[in-house]
Specification:
With about 650 residues, this protein is α/β, with parallel strands linked by helices. The chain is about 40% helix and about 20% strand.
Amino acid sequence: MTDTHSAAALDTVPKLLARNASKYPNAAAYREKELGIWQSWTWAETAQEIENLALGFLDMGVNVGDHIAIVGSNRPHLYWSMVAAQSVGAVPVPLYKDAIAEEMAYVLEHCSARFVVAEDQEQVDKIIDVKDDLKTLKSIVYLDPRGMRKYDKSALFEYTDVQAKGATAKADLMPELQKRLDMQGADTTCVMLYTSGTTGRPKGVVLSNHNIIETGRTTSEFDSLTVNDSVLAYLPMAWVGDFIFSIGQAYSAAFCVACPESGDTMQHDLRELGPTYFFAPPRYFEGMLTTVQIRMEDAGKFKQWLFKYFMDHASVVGPKLLDGMSVGLMDKLKYHFGKVFITGPLKNTLGLSRVRVGYTAGEAIGPELFDFYRSLGINLKQLYGQTEASVFITQQPDGGVRADTVGVPSPGVELRIDDRGEVFYRSPGAFVEYYKNPKSTKETKDKEGWVATGDAGFIEKDSGQLRIIDRAKDVGKMNDGSMFAPKFVENKLKFFSNILEAVVFGDQRDECVAFINIDLTAVGNWAERNNIAYSSYQELAAHPQVYEMIQKNIEEVNASVAQDEMLSGCQVSRFLILHKELDADDGEMTRTQKVRRNIIGEKYEDLLNALYGGASEIFTETEVSYEDGRKGSISATLEIRDTAVQPRTKVAA
């Protein structure tokens, strides 16, 4: 008898769904908070919801190989639409919900999408705005009917109506659905995800069932994820990380995926849910720490003393306990008291009390930030990955967690470093191709399956862990021959709660300079405590005392960078505080909040020239985009300041 639950038989996501519905029928598969109440669907209920939608897709005329775009917030129904698309042999293509209409149009046209599943009126409106330019688009399915009553319904269909029609026609459509399910296998396309487009147009990354399922299975086993675990799905569905956590791993391990009510309630919903598995980018952890620091600055003297006393102890003992190292009885007792009075309540406030495994990735995280969370007893680890790898390239095993590395190769992954220091990998998760782009595919992935990451790094001989220095294209040389690695300095700067973003320049220069974005929440709170009035980000950013505060932060980082012999030349000698926040809508960042360094350098060339030209101030005018798509401009006279630089050792070229 064939074991229908064997690895060979579970080579598609719909087959994993059928396994879970059979093996764990009453276990929670999805949760969603709506109107303040958590709703839940079991695996058996989820399978029925997806089957009805898949039958509805057949009724609408979805063909094998069609691309179905999916856009909106994290909702169970939108995840179901991905698996329903896979069930009928179509390819789901998630889009970023905050993308403007023109950005959506590029993806929809590039993948020749015939159908779109949209969350609500806002997303439908964006698609309608560009529909005339989309020759292949046939129909839009919408989930939330609010505001849609008077729309032309000739090509618009309500999600529940599609499901109802599918269920009604089940007897006629089921044979075709079963035929399409049976014809799929490991090599069938599972999803197409578009890159963030840091340096150019986004590329469609084709990932197979083998890529997603094998990665989901092995990495779930790596961290012992089971049906008893749960994750909060709050990151963009168009991002590969959300897909692997909420589909790849969730369907492999059969754990529960919970969706918050909205982005605004995410932190509150996180506390209520108490997930056991959690991922967040460094920016999220930076924001939470900023909130903690602000609250402590507002606290009384005794509470501040108590917090510092127990956190200083926790910073030493907490990581040791997580790594299973020996700790003395008195240290354990002191840590326990700190857990009762400080770290325990703090973990609960952060919503991380039940987290058994936590990861961060996307950008390097500052060691001070990383150590803060591990001192609380949160098993926060780092992974290194990219869309083309189905996320996982390396990850940190329990007992081998460090702030300055990104771990060992994930299960089944091979690593090598070329002569220029660029990291290459070969893995079961390595993408099939870039859609309609054989040239880029060939440039990125060779005939032997080795994929170029574009990152520079090295593997430590003693630990076997990978250290990432920077993007390979960003690593350069100072004029004196010393290495220039801007991200190394930027991450140190962003540890300070006052600094939201930093962009450092210095390649082929005598010195490094920086653009700074202040954190409006943190600096605004400081301004209120010090009775400093301001009416806008621009006004606060230009305040002399804010400049003094940022200058001290930079000089502290310079002292730290000076200790690194390899990178001591990356100290920042001059800086200015930008008059606006860097924004994806203005093309300065990607939708995943990665800095587009080259674009920023070109856009603010006048500011860069002033920094290197010795000016003490500069007038500038910048075009900005508003949420409604309108364009405008803002102008300001920016102060430029020098900072103290520590002596460094010059390295020969």
